[in-house]
Write a structure and sequence with these properties.
Alpha-Beta Plaits; repeat; globular; seven-stranded mixed beta sheet; PH-domain like; nucleotide-binding; eight-stranded mixed beta sheet; actin-binding; Myosin Ic, paralog b; about 1050 residues; Methane Monooxygenase Hydroxylase, Chain G, domain 1
């Protein structure tokens, strides 16, 4: 970057293009931005920092090599690594300066492998795929508690909030999407032994994007909230954050209204100590007993008081009014009061012992014994909290809902942040459900990975060799199969009459699935296994390893029932939220509700359908240690996670064929300097250029394959050797370009210096004085005045000073030139030396010499370059005929001449001449009959004319967007609002200069971000609510005609391999 700034100087025009030609080529080989360096660039430092993609591991079957590569990168604070397109993320347990807005911009719109691995690369790749392919995406984030899943999903949301197009309405949606996180964390997260902010529920969030790619809505689905945490936590853990935030951060007046004290020790559901009784005045119902709790009200890493303020603000942003918040907090306080109800009993019958207004509820417990009363109280607490959490999610969804009825369709990126595989010392019903979920996700992951690999091979014409892998369908069937699976057996035990218990459930399992190879119990195990299994346990052999499950509590947790009379009391509550949570229709419904396991199984099946309908991306999160310490790398813990995340299996599938594949243009652009025939430019077909290059490099036939648009390299060592050769070549290229650069700068210094040093005779007398020569006093005054005005635009007051600064800088540069262009010590130019066009074309300057050459371009050339930059941003690597448009100049008209009728049309209607004119073909909305038209662009509208007659006018403000295919055809659609009475529907046009035409439209209408490049088909409004479809297919020649299915069929030849 220093090079670029320094050389943005005012060099004279005679040499600027020559300088560009001489120096542009070699500098393309050198990465000037560390973050934008391609993945291959880091291979030269692989011994120190490892490889950025695990597929490039030479010993890819070795788990030790995999973990060692992770360790190398972790020690260098490189927490992200790829397995192909899968991102592996290691939690650093410290803040890293890699999430700034500058980093977001560096990853925005950049090819996935052109940048170092990052969560932003995954987010941007999914976003660009959604926009260009018009197919919904999803990002699956998995890992165990503490691995950083929640933080990863936050980073993705923040990336979209910053980089996506925005308006006032869109900004509101962005704010609500971001602020939904602290609210859901407060009510759904808790401190556990492994993580101080552990998500105790699964979350799938759809982010909805409009035609322009702006986030306009969202929808959240929650899975399996750990309701048991409300009434019991392990020692050292906490209840949900919201309880502590309310007590620590709530205002005194609020706590007084809720009947709460600012002391967590007073509440039975939060600590061990038995507190005095408090009355649940908010919900008007309370019952029963006490249990031992986590006793961990304070956590050093959590500031409950500060978090409370964040949550209150977030609730306001999302759209909660004061009444909503008050009712919600009443329920939270009521749950705390419920836990403090004391009871006693005589003759084994429970009764409330306190002399308060809730004593009348004692009749509800008859004839419950003490244990049943305790269970009933806890069941009510869990039901109240669980249903309130569901209500909260629905309320957030209402605020996020996309409310624009004019656009019935939108694109979606889904974020799945769900619990990873769990193995504890004591595993119960919750771990069983969580691990079943992970089995289903692993099954989906392997299937989609294999399918993706197979599809890519087939598309490239490479023979696909079947890959052997462990198919965990056998385990999924063991859990979910109808009538014979574990869930069916559990439901049967819950429903059958008689004395069903957790142990009868275990016996039923032994008799039904006892012969399954992935199922073991103490009774069925061999003597060695019995020593490590309890009699109340069964073992499942998951894809990630063996897990023992304790059946105690399975039936109660699966039933998840609430006594009918308690439901009746809840329906009588004056709390508006509770009346929505407990519907009176439940009381009249005779059907028994589904069990917890069956509900979870059904919701998981729906989730699989959602994920299967989208293009997936994966983020696998790893925690480096259990103590949450930065810099500590626990091999044993990480090996366990690598196993249960299935990373080695994924790597083996990805490496089954070829380790590395790149598009021809990318491969040739990077390595062309290694072959004399391809350097500096290859003029033929890309495939032939790559073939010439690899033959010159000495690739053996078994080391690579040539696909239709990509080269496939089988062994990492082949790529390493190529990269090492490039590193050597770069230095020689750098030295060569340095000599040219030094020579040219020396030649230019005296030409560009407007202030010349005085010329002196040998006798010391100045010979340069003439009648116009300024005196020393005048020069001092001009210098001082120029210094005062130095920050202004160039003017008579400061021109002397600016010229002097420029001359001094160039002379100093002349005397102290760095040795080569790779040198990091290039000086920064003063503000007065920056090129006048720097801001206008900053995005296009590929190298410092290019900035020099572009600094004094003529206005028409600037305009041409700016248009070419916009065309590149829109169409590069997306539209098949874009490369053919690059060498052709854009013009202001494609008509032989703008005849008088068209000119008079524009002057009479718009009072201006057209800025652009081009002949087009318009296709009728009915029958798709082709009609010749002219498309004109004015200052505020697109005009479609026929022989000087105005046929249609579309104001730029009414132009919703533009759709075009990714093939080489020139068909495009101008989308207009369906409720616009001035328009009859979207306009289908065809231009022989489609890249130029759409670039001009995008610039004039300010719709650069509204051009959608589609693959497969385009939908458009045909008027009166009807919808039309254009189908695009590659073929041997261009053909546009109506198909038998009523669609407009467009066949276009493939010109380039994208």
């Amino acid at each position: 970057m220093k090079c670029r700034r320094m050389l943005t100087t005012s060099l004279r025009s005679p040499t600027k293009l020559h300088l560009l030609r001489l120096l542009r080529r070699p500098l393309q080989v050198v990465a000037t931005d560390g973050v934008r360096a391609m993945m291959e660039s880091a291979l030269t430092a692989r011994d120190r920092v490892g490889v950025q993609d695990f597929v490039l591991l030479e010993n890819y079957t070795s788990e030790a090599a995999f973990i060692e590569n992770l360790r190398k990168r972790f020690k260098e604070n490189l927490i992200y690594t790829y397995i192909g397109s899968v991102l592996v993320s290691v939690n650093p347990y410290k803040d890293l300066e890699i999430y700034t807005k500058n980093h977001m911009e560096r990853y925005r719109g950049v090819n996935f492998y052109e940048v170092s691995p990052h969560i932003y690369a995954v987010a941007d790749n999914a976003y660009r795929s959604m926009r260009t392919e018009r197919k919904d995406q999803c990002i699956l984030i998995s890992g165990e508690s503490g691995a950083g899943k929640t933080e990863a999903s936050k980073k993705i949301l923040q990336y979209y909030a910053v980089t996506c197009p925005a308006s006032d309405q869109v900004q509101t949606v962005k704010d609500r999407l971001l602020q939904s996180n602290p609210v859901l964390e407060a009510f759904g997260n808790a401190k556990t032994l492994r993580n101080d902010n552990s998500s105790r529920f699964g979350k799938y969030m759809d982010i909805q994007f409009d035609f322009k790619g702006a986030p306009v809505g969202g929808h959240i689905i929650n899975y399996l909230l750990e309701k048991s945490r409300v009434v019991h936590q392990n020692h050292g853990e906490r209840n949900f954050h919201i309880f502590y935030q309310l007590i620590e951060g709530g205002e005194e007046d609020l706590l007084r209204r809720l009947g709460l004290e600012r002391n967590p020790q007073q509440y039975q559901y939060l600590v061990k100590v038995r507190p005095p009784l408090f009355v649940c005045v908010c919900v008007r119902v309370c019952v029963f007993s006490a249990v031992l709790q986590g006793n961990c009200p304070k956590v050093s890493s959590i500031n409950d008081r500060s978090d409370w303020k964040v949550v209150r603000k977030a609730l306001s942003v999302i759209g909660f009014n004061e009444d909503d918040v008050e009712e919600l907090l009443n329920i939270i306080a009521s749950v705390l009061h419920l836990g403090n109800v004391q009871y006693g009993g005589e003759d084994g019958t429970a009764c409330i012992t306190s002399d308060t207004q809730i004593k009348y509820l004692a009749r509800l417990m008859s004839p419950l014994n003490l244990e049943q009363a305790s269970s009933a109280r806890d069941a009510l607490s869990k039901a109240v909290y669980g249903r309130t959490f569901t209500w909260l999610v629905n309320k957030i969804n209402t605020s996020l809902a996309y409310k624009d009825d004019s656009q019935k369709s939108y694109s979606v990126i889904g974020l799945l942040d769900i619990y990873g595989f769990e193995v504890f010392q004591n595993n119960s019903f919750e771990q069983f459900c969580i691990n079943y979920c992970n089995e289903k996700l692993q099954q989906l992951f392997i299937e989609l990975t294999l399918k993706s690999e197979q599809d890519e091979y087939e598309a490239e014409g490479i023979t696909w060799e079947p890959v052997q892998y462990f198919n965990n369908k056998i385990i999924c069937d063991l859990v979910e199969e109808k009538f014979k699976g574990i869930i069916s057996i559990l439901d049967e035990e819950c429903l059958r009459p008689g004395d069903a218990s957790d142990f009868t459930f275990l016996e039923k399992l032994e008799s039904t699935v006892g012969g399954h190879p992935h199922f073991v119990t103490h009774k069925l195990a061999d003597p060695k296994t019995r020593k490590v299994m309890g009699r109340e346990e069964f073992r499942l052999l998951h894809y990630a390893g063996e897990v023992n499950y304790n059946v105690n509590g399975f039936l109660d947790k699966n039933n998840d029932l609430l006594f009918r009379n308690l439901k009746e009391v809840m329906c009588m509550s004056e709390n508006k939220i509770l009346t929505q949570c407990f519907d009176r229709e439940e009381l009249s419904d005779k059907k028994r509700p589904d069990t917890a396991a069956t509900q979870f199984k059904s919701s998981l099946a729906k989730l699989m359908e959602i994920l299967m309908s989208k293009e997936p991306s994966y983020v696998r999160c790893i925690k480096p240690n259990d103590s949450k310490q930065s810099g500590r790398f626990d091999d044993v813990l990480i090996r366990h996670q690598v196993k249960y995340l299935g990373l080695m299996e994924n790597l083996r599938v990805r490496r089954a064929g070829f380790a590395y594949r790149r598009r021809y243009e990318v491969f040739l652009q990077r390595y062309k300097s290694l072959c004399p025939e391809t350097w500096p430019n290859w003029q033929g077909r890309l495939a032939e250029g790559v073939s010439t290059l690899v033959k010159h490099m000495g690739y053996k036939p078994e080391e690579y394959k040539m696909g239709r648009s990509k080269i496939f390299i089988r062994f990492p060592k082949t790529l390493f050797a190529t990269e090492d050769a490039l590193e050597t070549r770069k230095h020689s290229l750098g030295e060569t370009s340095s000599f040219r650069l030094i020579y040219l700068i020396k030649q230019q210094v005296l030409r560009v210096s407007p202030v010349q040093p005085p010329s002196c005779r040998r006798d010391g007398k100045d010979t340069s004085r003439g009648p116009n020569t300024k005196s020393s006093g005048q020069q001092v005054r001009l210098f001082i005045k120029g210094f005062i005005y130095r920050h202004k635009e160039r003017c008579p007051e400061n021109e002397y000073f600016l010229d002097y600064v420029r001359y001094s800088f160039l002379m100093n540069l002349h005397r102290n030139l760095p040795k080569n262009v790779l040198d990091k010590s290039w000086p920064t130019p003063p503000p007065g030396v920056e090129a006048p066009g720097k801001g206008r074309l900053a995005v296009s300057a590929p190298s410092p010499p290019a900035s020099v050459a572009l600094s004094h371009c003529a206005p028409n050339l600037w305009e041409q370059m700016e248009q070419k930059v916009v065309a590149s941003e829109i169409f590069k690597d997306k539209k098949d005929n874009y490369p053919q448009s690059v060498p052709k100049l854009f013009v202001s008209t494609r008509l032989s001449e703008i005849d008088a009728s068209l000119r008079s049309l524009c002057m009479s209607v718009f009072a201006v001449s057209p800025q652009y004119a081009v002949p087009v073909t318009k296709y009728d909305r009915k029958g798709y009959k082709a009609r010749p038209r002219q498309l004109l662009l004015t200052g505020n509208a697109v005009v479609i004319a026929e022989e000087g007659k105005l046929k249609q006018r579309i104001d730029y403000s009414a132009l919703k967007g533009i759709s075009v295919s990714s093939l080489s055809d020139g068909v495009f659609v101008l989308h207009v609002p369906s409720d616009d009475n001035k328009q009859k529907g979207d306009v289908v046009l065809q231009s022989d200069h489609v890249i130029e035409t759409l670039t001009k439209v995008a610039i004039c209408a300010d719709k650069v971000n509204s051009i959608n490049i589609n693959q497969g088909s385009i939908k458009f409004t045909a008027g009166h609510g009807k919808e039309g479809i254009i189908d695009f297919t590659p073929g041997s020649e261009l053909l546009v005609a109506k198909a038998k299915n009523g669609h407009l069929a467009v066949t276009a030849p493939r010109l380039n391999s994208r």
